[in-house]
Amino acid sequence: SSSSSSHFTGGGWWCTYTAVSTMSKVKVAVRVRPMNKRELAMDCVCVIAMDHERTILLGSDSIKELHANRGEKKFTFDHSFWSFSEDDDHFANQEEVFQALGTDVLTNAFEGYNACIFAYGQTGSGKSYTMM
Q1: Does 90 score more than 60 pLDDT?
Q2: How far apart are CA 94 and CA 51, in angstroms?
Q3: pLDDT band per the 50, 70, 90 thresholds, residue 5
Q4: What gap in Å lies between CA 4 and CA 68, rounded to an integer?
Q5: Strand order of the sheet with strand 17-22?
Q6: Which is nearest to 92 in space by CA: 77, 73, 107?
Q7: Which of 18, 74, 125, 127 has its Cβ near the most Cβ atoms within 10 Å?
Q8: Which residue intervals of the chain are DSSP H helices?
Q9: How many angstroms separate the CA atoms of 79 and 40, rounded?
Q10: pTM over 0.90, yes/no
Q11: Which residue has the higher pLDDT, 101 or 14?
C-alpha cells in the first residue's frame, strides 16, 4: 500500500535549466511547474520551495516537519521561477519568464549576435511550455 508521503515530486524541478547568453553572460534559471494529472492522482507532495533566486529541495524528513532543516539542499540561480500554483503571491507567469530571459536573447539576435536558449529536463517537465 502506498501513502501520500511516499510519493514526491519537484513539480518540474528538473524541467527548466535554461542557459541564456547575454553578450558574454550565461544566466541559469529553474522553473517549478504545477503537478500533472498523474502526480495529482498519486497524491504527490511538492518537495521544492523557492525564495527569490534560491531553490530549496526539501528532504523526505522535512516533508513531515516542514520547518526542520534536516535533508534540505539549497541552490542559488540567476532566476528561480515558481509556477506551481497561480494562487501563490510569487507565481511566475509566462510574461515574467519571458521578460527575465527572452528579451535579452531577442535583443542580441536582432543586433546580429549569436543567441541561444537551452532548455533541459525530463519528458513532460515543462520545457516546451516554457519556450512558447
Answers
A1: yes
A2: 19
A3: very low
A4: 19
A5: 79-82, 25-32, 17-22, 117-120
A6: 77
A7: 18
A8: 37-41, 60-64, 94-97, 103-110, 127-131
A9: 26
A10: no
A11: 101
Rg, the chain, Cα only = 16
Residue with cell 530549496: 56
Contact 17, 119 (CB under 8 A): yes
Identity of the amino acid at 66: L
Which band of pLDDT confidence, cut at 50, 70 and 90, is reported for residue 72? confident
Contact 25, 107 (CB under 8 A): no
**List of residues 6+ apart from 18 with CB closer than 8 A:** 27, 28, 29, 30, 31, 101, 117, 118, 119, 120, 130
C-alpha to C-alpha distances, 12 to 30, 99, 113, nearest whole angstrom: 9, 21, 31
pLDDT of residue 7: 39
Q: Which long-range contacts does 93-101 make (Cβ < 8 Å, 24+ apart)? A: 94/130, 94/132, 97/29, 97/31, 97/130, 100/29, 101/18, 101/20, 101/27, 101/29
